[in-house]
Specification:
Blueprint (H helix, E strand, L loop, with lengths): L11 E8 L2 H11 L4 H4 L1 H5 L10 H16 L1 H6 E7 L8 E14 L2 E11 L5 E12 L2
């Protein structure tokens, strides 16, 4: 893991890939207490315009946060925030890839703000989530 002082604009954050499984969606429903039938009831969801169950948006956001934690460690957990837009749903059977890159770094004395573009895409290259991750910290 790089130190904050080693990051530069344009650097790539890395990649994580996750398979979307109905079992994981169901587990997330249990953990979050969000039992909306669009997520867990396949018969109900097939009758909707979405045509089947979809993953919770917050589950996909957790994957973005996981990438940021892998990249910046505790600094992300204490000084990070996400500003994202949901583009399309993630469905069971999808493979989601989360990526990002540093768009801007602002340094003011010891205070550092790192702004990153983040993107989640499915196996077809379709955007599921896009937006910005902002990290605020102090350099030692």
């Amino acid at each position: 893991m790089l130190k904050i002082s080693e990051w530069e604009e344009g650097m790539v954050l890395g990649l994580i890939t996750r398979d979307i499984l109905q079992e994981n969606i169901n587990l997330y429903a249990e953990a979050s207490r969000d039992f909306n039938p669009i997520h867990i009831d396949q018969d109900f969801a097939r009758q909707t315009p979405l045509g089947g169950t979809i993953a919770h948006g917050m589950l996909i956001m957790a994957y973005v946060s996981h990438l940021m934690t892998m990249t910046f460690g505790r600094v992300w957990l204490t000084g990070g925030r996400l500003d994202i837009r949901f583009k399309s749903p993630a469905r069971p059977g999808d493979t989601v890839t989360v990526s990002g890159k540093v768009r801007q770094i602002e340094r003011n004395g010891s205070r550092v703000v790192i702004k990153c573009e983040v993107l989640c895409q499915n196996q077809k290259g379709e955007s599921i989530v896009s937006g910005e991750a902002v990290l605020k910290t102090e350099e030692p």
